[in-house]
Predict the 3D structure of the following.
Amino acid sequence: MKKHDGDRPSLCDVEEKILLHYRSQLPQLTQTIIAHCKEEEGIRHIDYAPIPSKAKTIAILHQYLEIVFPGYFHEEKLDPVNLDFHIGQGVTRLFDMLSGQVINSIRHDCSRYDLSCQACIERGYRITVEVLRQIPSLRSMLAKDVQAMYEGDPAARSYDEIIFSYPGILAIAVYRLAHLLYEQQVPMLPRIMTEHAHDETGIDIHPGAHIGEHFAIDHGTGVVIGETTTIGKDVRIYQGVTLGALSLPKDAGETMRDQKRHPSIEDGVIIYAGATILGGNTTIGQGSTIGGNVWLTESVPPGTQVLIEKPQLIFR
């Protein structure tokens, strides 16, 4: 032992002793954690079948955005000369990335729930090709979404600004890809995608929702759109809007799965900030306007304005 100032141990010696005392407890702690991981079924994945990768799924979204909005998210300059090369390379890369994660998702469910063979490899390739086949129509819908945002927002200077910076268009773009995968009954990936967009934008759109064209989310923070929501075309919503379910029982995860729990919003509706619309039997009729902070659990006829009575202000 090193000695300093007579027989006093150095501070380094003291620190080493303290560290050794606590580190020596780690092997036993590790064994306790391992035993618990082996016993607790619900929150572990210990299997030979690979689980989907969240990081790779996020990388898929970046590749997808490069294809649906060419030139905006490329690190290299995109011009008419190299367009074919970049799009061709991007589509091939997206096929490889997406099919791998689709296959892992299907294989995971097959293993986790002891299903009969799901032909995961062939099905994964087929689903991915089908998604790629729909990219042109998806781009047409996104073009109308960008147009809707531009038309309704005098602060927007250009389509470029909206594509680059608006959280609403990012959330909608991710939702539209996730919805295609959801419709193909791909497990987990659609939700990973929309929850990543939720993290990035504050906008929570379930991939199961059905949303028509020319859809705009202005500002967007705090927007929630539930799984069984249906939204027509030419709809605009503002920040803090909730399209949700009524209060659910504790066993709703089993008893109410696949039931209509969220509202239907018809064409041409505007829903202002902070409004909450709940319930699977609630329909907001075509061309209606729902004012800010309104709470609705019943249907509204077409062409209706629903407003909160003006509050009385107190000035002191």
User: Anything to note?
Assistant: The chain has a mean pLDDT of 92.
